[in-house]
């Protein structure tokens, strides 16, 4: 920043003070300098202050390791060679690159919807998707689950309409709020299918039952479930046979599909309306053709291959069993998310640092505001490529760290859950 010490306003102090507050609250984030190695995931190189070191990644959202799959890499390289690296601008200016058209067709088919629309990230697809939908319905009432992701919260805020928060997965509370609303008023229920910090699942059919009874639209975030659940990777809604009941399904290409980008899938009218009115779509450069082609390759592969999903569930179950047998405070989760309770921000960060520096294990600490204060945790995400030896080594390392930091190894630690 230009030296402005003679200005009447000390601009630099604003930012320094903001950072000081984060440090004081133990919320300052430090990012590890990692170099993933295609073909060797979950192994990576950590570029530490002492030099490069081999580590094992245990917290990646590339849940199925598709970021290193030969089909996905091949599609990206071939398309980049043929079409170049960039999209050339927004879709309104540069047109639709053909791999993007194919990707949207593939996504619509995945969720058995009429159409799909791709955004530059899952965050943007929620933020701009929810706000645009609500603004297009005069006097819309948004009913949002209390544990919804920040991107959904921002989408609700930017809609500039009335919102009501229902207690997490509490159908009685949702019913109460819906019943109190004017039956003729447009209503939008927004929720996640799988909540990534605790790993619990929404009662999709029960939500749809209430929405249909009270004349509300439904919008579900499937980002932590697409690719991994359902016969074709359509997520929890496909697994539970609810795809046709939910009006809008939102997902990401950056997790199980191993690429980047977000999307919504819905009726042709909904998709066309969002495409035509959403600033976050209209004024943003499109996904590059190589990325779109790679994502399409990942989706097509996971539509037919069951090995990744089956192996993934096997690895997650074994990880939970081994860590629980070691008396580590594994929080209950019916899905692939394996949260280990810590309950203190400083010790959570210290546990993460010890694991990385002394055991070559990378697990990022999860502190406030991602989770409520007092529920800090390590969030472990096994992949199909975490073998028995890696799981056993993880358990041994965690027990060592727990003992050194005097963290509780008893089940009573779960009381704060």
Structural account:
- Helix 4 packs parallel to helix 12 (289-304), helix 5 (122-135) runs parallel beside helix 6 (150-158) and helix 7 runs parallel beside helix 8.
- The protein starts with 10 loop residues before the first helix and ends in a 13-residue tail after the last helix.
- Mean pLDDT is 95; it is low at 412-417.
- The protein has 417 residues and is of the alpha/beta class.
- The strands form three sheets. It has a seven-stranded mixed sheet, with helices on both faces. A four-stranded mixed sheet has the order 1-2-3-12. It has a three-stranded antiparallel sheet with strand order 11-14-13.
- It is 42% helix and 15% strand.
Write the layout of secondary structure elements.
Blueprint: H1 11-24, E1 34-36, E2 43-48, E3 51-57, H2 70-83, H3 91-94, H4 98-110, E4 115-119, H5 122-135, E5 141-145, H6 150-158, E6 163-166, H7 171-180, E7 187-192, H8 204-214, E8 217-221, H9 236-239, E9 248-252, E10 262-266, H10 268-277, H11 279-282, H12 289-304, H13 307-325, E11 338-341, H14 345-359, E12 361-362, E13 365-366, E14 377-380, H15 388-404
Parallel strand pairs: 3-12, 5-6, 5-7, 7-8, 8-9
Antiparallel strand pairs: 1-2, 2-3, 4-10, 9-10, 11-14, 13-14
Summarize the biggest pleated sheet. Answer: 7 strands, mixed
Percent strand equals: 15-25%
Number-wise, the strands total: 14
Mean pLDDT: 95
Query: Which of globular, elongated, flat, extended, rod-shaped describes the shape?
Result: globular
How is the quaternary structure best described? single chain
Widest sheet: strand ordering? 4-10-9-8-7-5-6
